[in-house]
Write a structure and sequence with these properties.
Layout lengths: L2 H40 L5 H7 L28 E6 L6 H11 L3 E7 L8 E5 L4 H8 L5 E5 L7 E5 L48
Parallel strand pairs: 1-2, 1-5, 3-4
Antiparallel strand pairs: 3-5
Length: 210
């Protein structure tokens, strides 16, 4: 073998060694990238740069904002005249459907059942407009600890968003509503004739995508 042949073999050997090193580095980098992506996806690794983008929508609080009293002399509304949209604002599967069935059994008209966009830490939110105050109070009598929320809707429909502390509807025989007795104004509500209807878009519980 000539010196020229030995030189060519040596150059080929060095080239193969460099290629092996480069491929090894690339494979290691790909493996690390894959492990990092898996850790971020599963929540094992938290990167501040992604925290804001992927943060879930803040949960509404259970604090009671000002809300209207029932109009003077307003009577409970027959359940068959109360249209309710029931939203599951928790991670508990089937909560809205099961509660809607219970309300339907008591005569309420169920317009839909959906998952809410945001979770809720309290018991429940009852959302209504100024024309649905009596309907909201009628529904509220079937739950313990519900928060009343006034929005700008023009109709008398009512939204019910069930929160993490919700367990079940009150037993029907404990619901203290007499169709001949006016609704009682709870402490802290605003007299109906002093209420200014919101002008912002309705505070409906928008269904979650998918």
């Amino acid at each position: 073998m000539t010196e020229q042949d030995r030189g060519r073999q040596l150059r080929r050997r060095h080239m193969h060694e460099r290629q092996a090193v480069i491929f090894g580095v690339l494979l290691a980098a790909l493996a690390l990238a894959g492990l990092g992506a898996a850790a971020v996806f599963t929540g094992s690794l938290h990167l501040p740069v992604f925290a804001r983008e992927f943060a879930s929508e803040p949960s509404p609080t259970s604090t009671q904002d000002p809300y209207p009293c029932p109009p003077a002399g307003a009577l409970p509304v027959a359940a068959a005249q109360v249209t309710v949209k029931v939203y599951n604002a928790t991670t508990r599967v089937g909560l809205a459907g099961a509660t809607a069935e219970g309300l339907a059994a008591r005569g309420f008209v169920i317009a839909l059942t959906e998952n809410a966009l945001a979770t809720y830490d309290g018991t429940a939110r009852i959302i209504f407009g100024t024309t649905g105050v009596a309907q909201a109070y009628t529904l509220a009598a079937h739950l313990d600890g519900a928060v009343l929320v006034l929005d700008a809707r023009a109709d008398a429909s009512v939204d019910l968003a069930l929160g993490a502390e919700f367990a079940e509807l009150k037993p029907a025989d404990t619901v203290l509503l007499d169709p001949a007795v006016p609704l009682v104004a709870p402490e802290g509500c605003i007299p109906f004739d002093q209420v200014v209807a919101p002008v912002a878009p309705a505070v409906t519980e928008t269904p979650a995508a998918g």
